[in-house]
Amino acid sequence: MPLIKYLDPARDSSKVSAYSKKVLEDIMKKAGVPLITVTSTARTVYDQARIMYENIERHGVLHQKRLYSSYGDKVIDEYSLLKSQGKSVADIINGMSVKITNIGPGNVSLHVGDPKKINVVDIAPSSINLALRKKFESAVNGDARVSKFLTPPADPAYHVEIPQP
Q1: Which of 110, 125, 150 is the last residue of a domain?
Q2: Are 31 and 139 within 8 A, CB to CB?
Q3: Does 52 share its domain with 94?
Q4: Beta strand 35-40 with 3-6: parallel, antiparallel or unpaired?
Q5: Structural domain of 148
Q6: What are the respective helix, strand and coil percentages of the chain, to the nearest 5?
Q7: Does 153 score more than 90 pLDDT?
Q8: What is the pLDDT of residues 17-39, one digit of tens each?
């Protein structure tokens, strides 16, 4: 039986529906993947801003703008503005949080959307044996229950969106 491990079980395991767990388990079985580590699921506005901040710092503005729509780009622009003003990390993340709230959290990222409508799960690629990653990617791409799938280098994680029945 495939095992879904959560980086933060207290926060994340309850945010993934039984339906989505079944979808992930079916994909894992098809690909022969015994274990995945879920690194992120549904997020608060603050967590979304913090994660966007960390990813901008790690990968750069242009890389992150390739990930997001025009709504997310506005949050990234807020980062750039506040950073250029010499604001503190806390002030930048708070400013990004306000921008996300004003834009509409679900417009920026479905991680902040309604988990009753869609579950968004990020999976650490490092949790999947290198020899099985292509099979996993193929299994995800071949599963009609998955509406969107992003892979590195476009996204740092395997990003899987599963609409809820």
Answers
A1: 110
A2: yes
A3: yes
A4: parallel
A5: 3-42+115-163
A6: 60, 15, 25
A7: no
A8: 999 999 999 999 999 999 999 99
